[in-house]
């Protein structure tokens, strides 16, 4: 009875507000005894009733209600208003309102979405609004939210609009979520989505990212079966894919097909072809494409690609001619163009002209980046001019750049070459302090440097020094040091380091045991080598294809010893089946 009375009062209040709004007596509604009765349910009912009167009265009242003291629109009130605006075809206003609540009301939550969908039994409007929501989340890189909205649409048998489908798939492709992309596409097909050219273009772009020619061709066939004609974007993506895979004949066939179908290649088409041929060092063909460009203008990318290509095939003269042509056409050299020329000058040991180029960059306000500085640092390190190398290191820091893996590697290599091992070691510590992980090459240079000074004892101390400085010393450090000592035939030192490693509770891996076994075989210490392989067998460690290839390449000069090693490894069953095929 009480509930019935309460409901009657609420209904009476709604009709009273409705009448006041229609008569224009809005001021009466802000009286405390009236405004305090506004609830989300009341607001929803009033908005719906006002929308039935036509016009924009409901939207005006919705905006006016935001000023009522102590009242705040609920999620359901907002949703009701979005529905009303959409039904009245005020799409931009509806989209703006949806976007304003999308990021703060956990709108993508399945329970929230189901609750909202159930309040408005209009599949077309729900599809419209939720499609917008998918687009909002996808374009904001909120991929999980976009996917959740799509899933709720699917569960509620609501078909998303094609724009929403392409936006979601595009976001997934950009995030490199390949498996999710294809699964989502299949789900779209199952709920009746008929893909258009934009969806196919997104999927072909995904194939390009993966280098998946087979799947791209299947999609092309699917397009043809649906009578969907490829457009310029489709063809450019296919050309890029074929060039990436070195399939130049196929790339040229696509270009010819474009022309037959009346689609003019644009500068992107030519740039893809030029890049593909430059990548293969086929500079004559690449340059021909530049000369054949029609109805398009070569841009900075075009010339930079060609300049870089000629530098890589050791034709600096042609690269500099193209640079002049580029400037004559009013195109500015960017940092990538400068870096390509700079790299070639440094490869030739021409640091004088490299510095002139750096001064030119400064005059033209082109800021050097890490690649610029690393190229020069590496060039000076190779010339053993560590003073100049360190000067550029300081310039990097003063320019707000951060030393990266390449900077540290170049400097460590340089100091090891000039046998200044204290500075090389300090750089190793600095590199670790910066959160970077030295690879095998870095540790091998340090081993070589100390061995050249006949100071192998410092190699053995290195793990302890790292530990004292608070660095975690695991198998990767020991593996690199042992492997290099074995390579230099310092087998006793390698064994000492192996014993220390085991004493620290760190077990050797396949590379450690195989390196030691090889070194013992080479030193004709057959018993010690056999012990290493037997211990390897006890620990069930196997030679993988990658390890087999690495050892075969590293020790190719010692073919006889390598054959003994592989025979013993096979005899003990320490190889994966794939390796046996490689050995045949």
From TrEMBL:
<dbReference type="Pfam" id="PF13041">
    <property type="entry name" value="PPR_2"/>
</dbReference>
<feature type="repeat" description="PPR">
    <location>
        <begin position="474"/>
        <end position="508"/>
    </location>
</feature>
<keyword id="KW-0677">Repeat</keyword>
<feature type="repeat" description="PPR">
    <location>
        <begin position="231"/>
        <end position="265"/>
    </location>
</feature>
<feature type="repeat" description="PPR">
    <location>
        <begin position="369"/>
        <end position="403"/>
    </location>
</feature>
<feature type="repeat" description="PPR">
    <location>
        <begin position="196"/>
        <end position="230"/>
    </location>
</feature>
<feature type="repeat" description="PPR">
    <location>
        <begin position="126"/>
        <end position="160"/>
    </location>
</feature>
<feature type="repeat" description="PPR">
    <location>
        <begin position="404"/>
        <end position="438"/>
    </location>
</feature>
<dbReference type="Pfam" id="PF01535">
    <property type="entry name" value="PPR"/>
</dbReference>
<dbReference type="Pfam" id="PF12854">
    <property type="entry name" value="PPR_1"/>
</dbReference>
<dbReference type="InterPro" id="IPR011990">
    <property type="entry name" value="TPR-like_helical_dom_sf"/>
</dbReference>
<protein>
    <recommendedName>
        <fullName>Pentatricopeptide repeat-containing protein</fullName>
    </recommendedName>
</protein>
<feature type="repeat" description="PPR">
    <location>
        <begin position="266"/>
        <end position="296"/>
    </location>
</feature>
<dbReference type="InterPro" id="IPR052308">
    <property type="entry name" value="PPR_domain-containing"/>
</dbReference>
<feature type="repeat" description="PPR">
    <location>
        <begin position="334"/>
        <end position="368"/>
    </location>
</feature>
<feature type="repeat" description="PPR">
    <location>
        <begin position="299"/>
        <end position="333"/>
    </location>
</feature>
<dbReference type="InterPro" id="IPR002885">
    <property type="entry name" value="PPR_rpt"/>
</dbReference>
